[in-house]
């Protein structure tokens, strides 16, 4: 199974419109505020940090470049060709490699695993943006990439984030400027319960090794100057003997 054409086209439209300016995208906060804290949680559970690391849903590659400074081989993958254009322009030194991938497509995930072998996978916020029928195939694809030795390191919005986003979208002036394009392109996060995420992982044959809560920081601010943060859950999963 692969993702729907509507979903693919929505992401292409979003990234074609997005600016190359750092921080212009709602969720594209500085790595020291996002992937940096995530790594501090994930690294103790990586049984083999030397495995290739796949940044799944890499977008414009901000987090990918940070990961490439810390792991020997990093590949940023995304469904959107326009997103990857941003990533390559922002990485003229070629710190990481980038590739278009539909991870919900079984054949594509298997082909990448055949090329790279087992990998560690980092994914932030992608599952909640998926259409319902694509969620389990996506996690199945992650399980394929992880194989026997890798770890899946996921950060997903928690159920409480819906209320925060709804409040932002329903304000008297409408959604904040950086959030407005997300809604305009039909990319508003779907409803995935906190209980559903570990169940997707278990159904894919993975064991949840650790989990916790950590706010997902955005690049947008409230009128009082405070940064908007979205409640989120982090999980580490892999196969166990």
Could you explain how this protein is built, in words?
It is a single chain. With 241 residues, the protein is of the alpha/beta class. It has helices at 5-17, 35-42, 62-68, 81-89, 106-116, 132-146, 161-169, 180-184, 196-203, and strands spanning 53-56, 74-78, 97-100, 120-124, 152-157, 207-213, 216-221, 227-230, 232-238. The strands form two sheets. A seven-stranded mixed beta sheet has the order 3-2-1-4-5-9-6, with helices on both faces. Residues 54-146 form the Methyltransferase domain. InterPro entries: Methyltransf_25, SAM-dependent_MTases_sf.
What is the H-and-E element order?
HHEHEHEHEHEHHHEEEE
**CA radius of gyration:** 17 Å
Distance between the termini: 29 Å
Largest sheet: 7 strands, mixed
Number of helices: 9
Bin the strand percentage: 15-25%
Task: Classify the secondary structure makeup into a structural class.
Answer: alpha/beta
Globally, the shape reads: globular
Low-pLDDT residue intervals, each spanning 5 or more residues: none
Mean pLDDT: 93
Q: Give the % helix.
A: 25-40%
Oligomeric state of this protein: single chain
- Secondary structure: number of strands: 9
Record the strand order, biggest sheet: 3-2-1-4-5-9-6
InterPro entries: Methyltransf_25, SAM-dependent_MTases_sf
Protein name: Class I SAM-dependent methyltransferase
GO molecular function: methyltransferase activity
Pfam family, one: Methyltransf_25
């Amino acid at each position: 199974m692969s993702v729907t054409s509507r979903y693919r086209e929505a992401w292409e439209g979003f990234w074609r419109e997005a600016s190359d300016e750092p921080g212009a995208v709602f969720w594209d906060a500085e790595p020291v505020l996002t992937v940096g804290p995530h790594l501090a949680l994930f690294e103790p559970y990586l049984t083999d940090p030397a495995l290739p690391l796949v940044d799944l849903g890499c977008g414009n590659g901000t987090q990918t470049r940070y990961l490439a400074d810390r792991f020997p081989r990093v590949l940023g993958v995304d469904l959107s060709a326009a997103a990857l254009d941003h990533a390559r322009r922002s990485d003229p030194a070629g710190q990481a490699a980038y590739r278009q991938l539909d991870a919900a497509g079984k054949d594509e995930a298997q082909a990448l695993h055949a090329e790279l072998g087992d990998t560690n996978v980092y994914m932030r916020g992608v599952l909640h943006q998926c259409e319902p029928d694509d969620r389990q195939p996506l996690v199945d694809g992650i399980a394929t990439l992880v194989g026997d030795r890798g770890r899946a390191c996921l950060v997903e919005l928690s159920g409480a984030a819906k209320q925060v986003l709804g409040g932002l979208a329903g304000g008297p002036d409408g959604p904040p400027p950086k959030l407005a394009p997300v809604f305009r392109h039909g990319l508003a996060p779907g409803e995935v319960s906190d209980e559903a995420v570990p169940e997707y992982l278990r159904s894919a044959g993975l064991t949840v090794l650790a989990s916790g809560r950590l706010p997902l920081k955005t690049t947008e601010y409230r009128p009082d100057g405070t940064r908007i943060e979205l409640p989120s859950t982090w999980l580490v999963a892999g196969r166990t003997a």
